[in-house]
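User:
Can I borrow your eye for a moment on a structure tokenisation matter? Would you put together a sequence-and-structure record for a protein of your own picking? Please set it down just below, with no commentary around it:
AI:
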Amino acid sequence: MNPALSTEDHTALWEAACQRNGFNCLPIYDLELVGLTGNIFIFDVRFQNPDGGIFHLGPCCGEDPSTIPPQAVFSYRVLELSFEEYVVLDLPVYSP
């Protein structure tokens, strides 16, 4: 999405994702550990809107809201690399 940015410039890539590319980089409202597969933790996460409420992702691109309900819970995988090192494997919620 950002060919002008270096793939090594993680800060600039995150900034572009959150400010220009449609990703919703929001604070976590709450989360629940729902599974563990090997060294991958699986969480259900809800995010917080700027007004303090819970973020909902509505239908996209002309889809019928009566057949596609808003989504408030998003699944995220976290890989444990070592005792104190973890990596989130999934991107923020995307809104085209």
